[in-house]
Each structure stands twice: as C-alpha cells, then as structure tokens.
Amino acid sequence: xxxxxxxxxxxxxxxxxxxxxxxxxxxxxxxxxxxxxxxxxxxxxxxxxxxxxxxxxxxxxxxxxxxxxxxxxxxxxxxxxxxxxxxxxxxxxxxxxxxxxxxxxxxxxxxxxxxxxxxxxxxxxxxxxxxxxxxxxxxxxxxxxxxxxxxxxxxxxxxxxxxxxxxxxxxxxxxxxxxxxxxxxxxxxxxxxxxxxxxxxxxxxxxxxxxxxxxxxxxxxxxxxxxxxxxxxxxxxxxxxxxxxxxxxxxxxxxxxxxxxxxxxxxxxxxxxxxxxxxxxxxxxxxxxxxxxxxxxxxxxxxxxxxxxxxxxxxxxxxxxxxxxxxxxxxxxxxxxxxxxxxxxxxxx
Amino acid sequence: xxxxxxxxxxxxxxxxxxxxxxxxxxxxxxxxxxxxxxxxxxxxxxxxxxxxxxxxxxxxxxxxxxxxxxxxxxxxxxxxxxxxxxxxxxxxxxxxxxxxxxxxxxxxxxxxxxxxxxxxxxxxxxxxxxxxxxxxxxxxxxxxxxxxxxxxxxxxxxxxxxxxxxxxxxxxxxxxxxxxxxxxxxxxxxxxxxxxxxxxxxxxxxxxxxxxxxxxxxxxxxxxxxxxxxxxxxxxxxxxxxxxxxxxxxxxxxxxxxxxxxxxxxxxxxxxxxxxxxxxxxxxxxxxxxxxxxxxxxxxxxxxxxxxxxxxxxxxxxxxxxxxxxxxxxxxxxxxxxxxxxx
Amino acid sequence: xxxxxxxxxxxxxxxxxxxxxxxxxxxxxxxxxxxxxxxxxxxxxxxxxxxxxxxxxxxxxxxxxxxxxxxxxxxxxxxxxxxxxxxxxxxxxxxxxxxxxxxxxxxxxxxxxxxxxxxxxxxxxxxxxxxxxxxxxxxxxxxxxxxxxxxxxxxxxxxxxxxxxxxxxxxxxxxxxxxxxxxxxxxxxxxxxxxxxxxxxxxxxxxxxxxxxxxxxxxxxxxxxxxxxxxxxxxxxxxxxxxxxxxxxxxxxxxxxxxxxxxxxxxxxxxxxxxxxxxxxxxxxxxxxxxxxxxxxxxxxxxxxxxxxxxxxxxxx
Lengths: 349, 343, 317
What we know:
- The complex is a heterotrimer.
- Chain A has 12 helices and 13 strands.
- Chain A is α/β, with parallel strands linked by helices.
- Chain A has 2 domains: 4-221, Rossmann fold (3-Layer(aba) Sandwich), CATH 3.40.50; 247-328, no CATH class.
- Chain B is mainly alpha-helical.
- In chain B, strands 2-3 form a two-stranded antiparallel sheet.
- By secondary structure, chain C is mostly helical.
- Chain C has 15 helices and no strands.
- The N and C termini of chain C lie close together (8 Å).
- Chains in contact: A-B, A-C, B-C.
- Chains B and C meet through helix 5, helix 6, helix 9, helix 10 and helix 11 of B and helix 1, helix 6, helix 7, helix 9 and helix 12 of C.
C-alpha cells in the first residue's frame, strides 16, 4: 500500500464568474520515502492539490469529490482532532513564499517550538532545545542565538530554511513542498534543494515537490507528474520523462527551458496561456495551444493511457509511463513531430 | 508520423521540432486560444453601482436617507425673500404646525393623535419640530463636509504631490490640530466665534478638513509612484494637471467613503453642541438643541421630549453609515477579490 | 534601529507638535473678536485706571509674542493663574476634576476592549454568518447613537423608571461603592461608541490577516484553530487596533465632554463646558491645553507600544 493515495480528486472554487474546477479528477500515489514532482504552469492546480492533502483549502474552494488516503486512513473523513494530529505531524508543508509563511511577530524559534509542543507532550525547555537542534540541521549558523530573532531579521533563503526546520520538527512521513524555491534567488535555490534532498534521506521522508520549473525537479525527484488545467497529462519516472517526453505540453515545457551555451536566438514558447478554468476548451484542454492539434483533439478528451499499449492504466505501477494524448491511442492523423536531441557532457544526474 | 524511439544516450538534451511545429501550425478548424476572450469590461462606475445595489443594508440606508431628505425639504414651505418679493420655491407643508409656534397644544403632552410625538415645554408640536429640524442637521452635515472637502482635498493633494517643506508644513499643522479632539476643537472655535448657524458650520468644517487632507496625502503618495503618473510627468504635463487629472481621481475613493461617513459624524457633533447649549439657539428646532432640556424633562417623566429627536438623529446617522459602508465595499471589493484570486 | 533610538526619534518629532498645541491654545483668547481685557473684566465697564492696571497684571500691555512666552513659561511650571470668574486657582480646579474624568474614561476604555475585541474576533471568524451580521449592525448602531441621547435613555429607563440608579451623582468620595455604582451608566454610555469602533476595526484587520500566509502555516503545523486565531491572528490584528488607540482617546474625550453633562459628572468635560458658558477663558485655555497635551503624549505612547508589538517597525524606518 502506498503512503499517499489520491483518487479522482475534484476541487472547485465558486467565484463571481462561475464555478472553477481547479483540480479535475486527478489520481496518483506516493510511496514511502519516494520523491514525486508535480509540474505545470501556474494555475494548473498544483498548489490546490497540495492544500487539499491537508484539507487546508478555504472558502470559496472546496473538495467536491474523490478520496485522499494517507497510510490507509481516509483524510477527508478525519475528525478535526484527527486532522490536527495529521497536520505537521505526519504530513508537513513547505510554502512558496517563506517571508509570508512566517508570523512576523513571533521569533522563529517560538514558531518551531510551537509545532513540537502541538504534537508532543514535551516541556518548553525540551521543545526549545529541539528547535535549536533543528535550526542547526537546516544549517543556520549560530542557531542558539538566532532562535530568538524575528523572521524579518533573516534573508529569504534563511527564512525558507526555518520553514523547512518547522516542517521537519515532528519527523513527518510526507513533506509537501509547494514551489519552495520560486520566491528565492537562483543562487539560493540550489542550496535549499540540496538541503531538502539530504534531509529527506536523513529523515526517510517522502516528498511531493511542486514546481513550474522542470530544471528544479530534475535533480531531486524519482518521478514526475505533469499537470495542465487541473488534470495530470503525463507521468513517468524522471529520467524517462526528460529523455522521452510523450505529451506535447511536456515537450513544450522542455523546449522552453533555457540552457547555457544555447545557440538559439530565441527560446521557443508554448503559444497562448493557461485557459480560464471557468470556461475550459472542449476535448483535449491543451489543444488550443498545441502545435499538433487536430480535429480529434477538439472533439474528444484523451484519457491517461500507457504510452506503449494505449490502454488506460487504472492502477499504474510507479514506473509506468502514462500520457493523455490521442497519439497513444492512434487517433491522430499526422502524429507528433519532434525529436529529443542528446548532446554530450553535462546533462542530468 | 515519426516513430519515437527512446534514446539510450544520456547527457544534455534539447527538443527539436516543437518550435517548428508551432510556427507551422495550421490553425484552421481548431479554435485558437484567445487571450482577450473574457476581457469585456464593464464601466467602473457601473460596476460600483452594481455592487452597491446588491448590498441590501446599503440600499435600505440609501432609502432612509432619501426619505429623510424628502421629509425635511417638504416639511415646511421654502421661501426666499428678496427686494420685497417672496419667492416660494416649495409650497408644500408636511408638518402640521409651525415648529416654533408655542401652545399649539398643552405643554409637555405625551403622544396623541393630534400630536404624534407629543409637545414640548412650550406646547410646541414635536412632530413638526422633528420634521423641520432635519433641515438644520442635514444641511449642516452636508455643507460642513463639503467645505471641509474643499479645504482638505487641495491641501492633501498638494502636500502629497509636492512633498518637501510644503508637505512638512501642512502635515505638522494637521498633526497639531489632530491633538485636539474633534468636539473639543469645535467647542473652542464656537467659544471664539460665538454661536449661530454659520459659525457652527465653520467650526465643524475647520475641524473636518484635517482628516481628508491626511487621507488624501497618503493616497497620493501611493498613487504617485505608479507608472501612469511617472509617464505623464515624463511627457511634460504640468504638475497641476498631473495632480488633479491623474492623481486625485485615483486617490479619491477612500475620501468619498470617509466623507459619507463624516456626514454622520458631523450631524452627531452638531447635535452634541446643540445639546450642550453651544450650537444653535436652544429654542431652535435643531435635533440636538431640542434635547438640551432633555435632562429636566426626563426627571419629570416627559420621555417623549427626549426620545423622538434622538431617534431622528440615530435614524439618519445609522442610514448614512450603512450607505458609507456599502460604498466602501463597492469601491474596494478587495477583501472579496483577495479570496477569489487565491488558487 | 534599536528600540531606544526609535523612541528618542519619536520624542523629538513630538516637540514641534507640542509647541503647535500651545500656540493654538494660546491664540484662542487672542483671535476671539474683541479685546482680551473684556474677558478679564467679565465684559463689564470699568475705569480706565483699573483697566490699565489689570492689563499690566495680566501682561496684556506687552507684545503678543512676549505674552506667549510668559504664558508658556507659566504653563511649564504648571502655573495657570487664577480664574477671573471664580477667583480660584485654575490648576487646583483642574486637579480636582481630573481624577473623575480619568476614572470614567479609563473604565469606558476597558469596557470597549472587553466588548469590542471578542465581538471583533467572532465577527471575523464567522464572516458572513448571522453572528457577523448581527455584530456589524450592532456596531453601526453603536456609532450612530448620539451618546448624550443614549445616556438620557439609560437614565430614563434605569434611573427614573426602574430606580436602580440615581439621576445625579451621590455625595460620596470618588472611590466609594456608591460612586462606582453610579458610574456604571456613564461608563456604558461613553464606552459604546468606542467598543463599536474597536469591533469594526478588529474585524477588518482580522479579515486581512486571515488571508496571510502565516495563518496557513500555523494550520499546517497542526495547531488548534483556537491557537491559530487567538495567538497568531489576533496578535497581528491588534497592531491595527493599537494604531487607532490615539483616535480612541480623542473619541473618549469628546464623549466625556457630553456624557459628563448628561450625568452631572464633575469631570474635565463639565468644567470645560461650564467655563465656556461663563467665558472663563483661563480655565478654557488650561483645559484645552491639558487635553491637547494628553492626546499628543498618548499618541507617542501608542507609537512606542506599536513598535514593541510589531518588531518590524523598529527596523523599517
């Protein structure tokens, strides 16, 4: 049994303009100790998925249907007290903007110690010592004295380390990281990612990493799931996804990653932008932006199928490669025309 | 159709073919995503009005204000006398009696059919007095706020836009005047100027402009940084034009809300001054002044003398506050948008 | 910037404002139409000789700026002179009245916090629900009710009809049980508008804070909703309430002027109104000055408290 199982999750937002299906029937699972990425442009429903796992969605968002099972338990059916026990203790979260995620009027130490006290029956002194210890483990220099400093006295990267320390304080089984480096400088980013990788191994924690940046995901994750307009459009082990992307959207995302030594004048981009989810396109949601779109794409929505067999996978194994494109059920006339060129040197780990 | 063979090589990867496919895409028969599809914009004012209208309590407030204005205007005939001619602007008289005519009934009589709000110590009809008295309260509120805006907006705009010593000077004056509570300052000004309608209006306007100046200055400082202002300045548009054409209209929304709410505050202050005997003459049919003898009547059990004028003040100020709140929500639906945009 | 530095800077900025307050108060007497000597003589016709000697006594024969300096010097030594109307020492009169107003204002302020804070929290947490609507309307009503009228109605109901309270203060020391009992109605009357203000302000600032990221973090940590609201959100929201504490003081002073009149409460407000009625300008001047200085000092304290509550502020400026 997987650690986390999400099945047919549907999340809606009720807005002035109409009902928005921010997440539309996604299913996936994460095993113990596994690192899985959710990738897509902003608005794809990645953050909403993360918040749903901890039932942190607020009005006007609502989980409409589907199931979330954690360690065999039905998360959506938990009582308030059970939910409180799950949050922070078993599933912890790291947010996008560390400066917003920390309360400006309490010291960082207090904010970590508080998380420990919320789940374990410890003395204030023990909580304090453990918080300092955590600050050390996320490599904040001079942890004991920085314990009593306020968030605004930390740089962005250091703030995110504090948030990570807080998330790890009760040794959770799953760490949900929602764009943990997006708000940070590129130079800081690598350090944070490396830290996450080390700590996940050290604490034997599974990670769900959300990012819009395929580059961030490459080094850290075992598997990648690509989301578009509330749906998962492709999932594969990381290496396979990079060297052999199957969905045109994934291909487009990869084509637009800038590289050092690039000889192209201009980066190709995917035309247009994410559709308004109040009024989603018919058929394949990506078809208005897809350079390979055909008549079939406009008429029918493709289902997520095994790219080899073209058969929908109800219970995919972690290493299966699935994509939601008519190409793999042989419904396209012209097919997809692109090539992955591998050059020497550098590359992925 | 190309066959994709998974590569076995590992190393730096690059996608080829996607870009070309984008360029060559024949988009006939496929509806191209259009960024402007949902961009029909309703007019801003229309939008504000739509939001205001959907606010039930604000509409009730607006109705009450309109009703009270109607009642006070038609309470007694409006006449202007100039050069021997009397022009009657408004001949209707909803009030059954002349509000200042004494002994139209017995003194201190409780509510009856003839005098629905009873009579006061001089036997004047309270119903007529409350109706006609609205003229004082409402006009003082409107005029004092208008005058305060006339002073506060230019000063605040100039201080915010010019900055430097002008700003320093205006703001120190504002800070200093802020040290005096509104009513205390008004009392002091009345003490200096003496009593009377226009003195009262002047006192309330002199204390009222401070708030607008401060508010508008803050807004102007914020708006000033925006690009369209920088653009206008860069194009060589004169300062005066920039301030009043570009900056003020964008900073004015909170001022409008504040002014609406302040009509209520001013009416309350005018009434309080009247109650203290420092506003209009105690025999005037002004709502506050009518209460100045409230304490004595109370002890003698003449509750109606106190209750009705007070209710009138309450009703008007409450209605104005509902309108102000509704305007605030309609002009700045941010709380709502913040929630809506989160996903 | 350290806290000490910040405080020092705020104090320095306050000085010109205090000077402005004295200048405005001083000029009250001098911009009034007519000759200040009329005030001294109580608008009676007196001999030229008497008038000249009075002018000399009150320093009215000297240039205005000199009079101002002398007056400021007197004020600094808490020397307010004698009232030409009652002949009593102005400072002593004020010292007698001040405790009444301080006690009334203080208890009204406390009451406004006791009602306004819980009501504001509940309204924000239950946004859009009936509890929110009810407290919203109640707060608007609290602001819209003329305080003198509220006082009169309370007196009518609880004093005249039910007989629970006297209509005028008992002849008893300020801190006696009788007096404190009597003070209940004035306290409610004075505290109502303040409570409404606190409630509305807290509600809107809580709603803003509830959208902040740290609230989500706190929930994600597995804190109880109670802890999230009362520890994390409230602390931040209260900062907004503290910033208007200065406004609240002016509101209370304004209220006290009126409410003291309604309940015949022998405080500063009544002193001021009576003095204006008697054209007792030295008393008016001293009272207005005291009120102005109190507000300025209170605002200073508010800013210092604010910088303590919000650690960011000390560094930002």
